[in-house]
Design goal:
Number of helices: 9
Order of helices and strands: EHEEEHEEHEEEEHHEEEEHHEEEHH
Largest sheet: 8 strands, mixed
Oligomer: single chain
Strand content: 25-35%
Shape: globular
């Protein structure tokens, strides 16, 4: 069993930034992540092609990110200098778009490598005992005490955080709201080159929300006679199809892509992923930055720091930073 000052649950951007900054103050910090690697919405995926046997890598979550605050711009400059981020393209409405290199997960992996992070570990219960929090792993019938901590930072989707709270907790109701909408994401390894003039599309009135040519990002490997495209479905369409069969979802997204190109899409490999908690929408906790219940439980994530200008990765970074800056034992 571990004992620490702070247990951070979640190794996405917000959790890792909070953990890193709290560690710099001299606190002992332990971070746990239920997945096999860091990233959250900055996750990347590598799969073996069933047709060619080659490794195919692509970004599974966030497409790219921008920087509006001076704080995040400075951090981005540092990541670019370290070689874990680079400029992808420029938008007249959103400014410069950055990505991680050679994949988006490189950024969170860079952060995690400097911290005490344990992967494939899911916290299933939190109980208050005296002046400490006891974090448990395992199913209810076989729960095991994993860690004792004075403080716990929940850097996980709000609905998952709510599941760890008792019914009387003051944040239970707000965190249980549909704060984050779902999203289907489909990777397609296609034969030939699609008849598309751009490497990045944002669509309306289509099941497809974003369409991204993976090799257009810096540091990615060109496929030669084939291409890797990533389809991010619209959150509204994803919510409507959340319980549909995976084959049906994939076929509808491929049909939407074929309609866009005006020609058949020959798929050599594909991978479909369902994010249950992906896109933040306006809710009662918007703009809080972070949360603290006064009893040693803290909450951070992009959903707390998003604004008209600060979105996604920058919002997650900002939330983790604000929590650490205002942390008090």
């Amino acid at each position: 069993m571990l004992t620490t000052d702070v247990l951070v649950v979640g190794a996405g951007m917000a959790g890792l930034v909070a953990a890193e900054n709290l560690s710099k103050t001299g606190l002992s910090v332990v971070c746990v992540e239920k997945a096999r690697g860091s990233g959250g919405r900055l996750s990347s995926k590598r799969v073996r092609s069933a047709l060619t046997g080659e490794d195919l890598s692509f970004d599974l979550g966030c497409t790219s990110f921008t920087a509006y605050s001076e704080l995040f711009r400075a951090q981005l400059e540092s990541w670019v200098t370290q070689g874990v981020a680079d400029v992808w393209h420029y938008s007249h409405t959103q400014g410069t778009h950055y990505v991680g290199t050679p994949r988006n997960s490189s950024i969170t992996r860079n952060l995690a490598d400097r911290l005490d992070v344990t992967f494939s570990t899911r916290i299933t219960a939190l109980l208050r005992e005296g002046d400490e929090w006891c974090a448990y792993v395992g199913e209810p019938s076989e729960q095991k005490l994993y860690c004792r901590a004075k403080h716990v930072v929940l850097a996980i989707p709000p609905q998952q955080a709510a599941d760890l709270l008792d019914n009387e907790h003051p944040f239970k109701s707000a965190l249980s709201e549909p704060v984050l909408l779902p999203q289907w994401v489909l990777m397609l390894h296609v034969k030939g080159h699609l008849q598309l003039s751009q490497h990045f599309y944002e669509l309306t009135d289509s099941p497809i929300h974003r369409l991204i040519l993976e090799e257009s990002k810096p540091g990615r490997t060109e496929q030669g006679s084939s291409q890797i495209w990533v389809i991010q479905a619209s959150p509204e369409w994803s919510a409507e199809c959340i319980d549909e069969s995976r084959d049906k979802v994939a076929n509808q997204l491929i049909a939407a892509l074929a309609s866009l190109t005006g020609s058949p899409v020959i798929v050599e490999d594909q991978l479909l992923h369902r994010w249950l908690y992906a896109i933040a929408q306006n809710h009662s906790l918007s703009g809080k930055g972070y949360l603290h219940d006064g009893q040693g439980l803290w909450f951070c994530g992009d959903y707390l720091a998003e604004s008209e200008t600060i979105k996604g990765v920058e919002a997650a970074f900002t939330s983790g930073h604000l929590l650490a800056r205002n942390f008090a034992l």
